[in-house]
Amino acid sequence: MPRWRWTLGVVSSLLALGAPCASGADAPISPDRPSVTNNTETVRPGVAQLETGVEYAKSSIGGGESDRRFAAQLALRTGLTGALEARLGGEPVVRLRGERDDTGPGDFSVGLKYRLLDAEEHTSWPSLGLQPSVKLPVAGAPIGTGRPDFELRALASFDLPAGFGLDVNVALAAVGQSRPNGYLLQALTSASLNLKILEATSAFVEVAFASRDERDARDAVALRAGIVYLLGRDVALDAAAGASLAGQGPDYTVIAGVSVRLGHR
Question: How much is the pLDDT for 22?
């Protein structure tokens, strides 16, 4: 079966799971984008949440031509239980320009988010979660590696005084390699400090570390900042910009998107 048909089948199945049914959620939408760090909140049963956007990144390669990457982003989240959601995410279209030119679909991933522990009021304990995922090798080189990856991410969300919040992620990933064949263990950590600045607007600043994802690559540290604006209880707009602080990574990245929640809450 062609890969795109398999992916379409997964999307259809998740949408069916998210068909409207009774649910008691009444909190505003809480998208995982545009930061790299995810919070512990899950989508409730009977609700599907569609998070879309675009990303543009520019990278300088020595003294040669700069690489430019444009990608359309898509994530679909649907609640299975009160503390468990199913996730499908990826890049339906990627356009590369620079040393190597190509246009085509990017990789997709499927996974779960499970909220292990809810934070109790008036305590310093965070809410905790786990997020396992598998990357589906839809894209070949130069857009993708053509190999599956596996990741297990631990999530922690802290409620801080004065409207601040802190999300922290720690992950281990097995990244597929081709020369030689096998897998490379990659460590990823990130922390996002959030602040609600208006009734419908919040801002964040984030630092992320990733160890090398190829045997001849280097570790990377990146900085990202952005805002999320609630257009309504079920719609959120977002924008962010980021830059590489050390190691391999884009000189800068610009992101914008919209998230919509569907179904009864």
Answer: 33
Q: Is CATH 1.10.300.10 correct for 3-19+31-262?
A: no
Task: Give 10-68 pLDDT, tens digit per residue.
Answer: 445 544 444 433 333 478 999 999 999 999 999 999 899 999 999 999 988 665 668 89
Tell me the whole-structure pTM to 2 decimals: 0.84
pLDDT band at 240 (very low <50, low <70, confident <90, very high): very high
Contact 190, 208 (CB under 8 A): yes
- Cβ distance 113 to 103 under 8 Å? no
Tell how far CA 237 is from the center of its chain.
Answer: 15
